[in-house]
Write a structure and sequence with these properties.
alpha/beta; two-stranded parallel ribbon
Amino acid sequence: MLYLLSYVNIYIFYTWTIKIVNFPKEVVFNLPQTETPEVLFYFINELDDTEKFIRMAHSLKLPKDNRTIVFFNKGRKDGVNRDSIIAPFKNKVYPEFKFKAPMLCSISDELSAFAMCLVK
């Protein structure tokens, strides 16, 4: 199992409410979750998951100062990679999502992520 808390200083998220969606069972966060989050963690495994992420983010009552953090596997050669996942956001296909620091970060040897804010 991949315990993300041992790879990244995620302690700041303990002060925020979180919802974790679509992660493989071997990725374990050990963080409390809520149905009314300030932060959404969403794992993209296939390109269709991007649309599911968009719908999920819009369906939540996220506060003004929210974070939506998209995680994905590094090094995939099947077209589901950093460039294909981040492209619609960089190209303003979804202009309501604004990049926030850390815009792109390495979480572990296997995972990367980027953070955005859903501006409603």
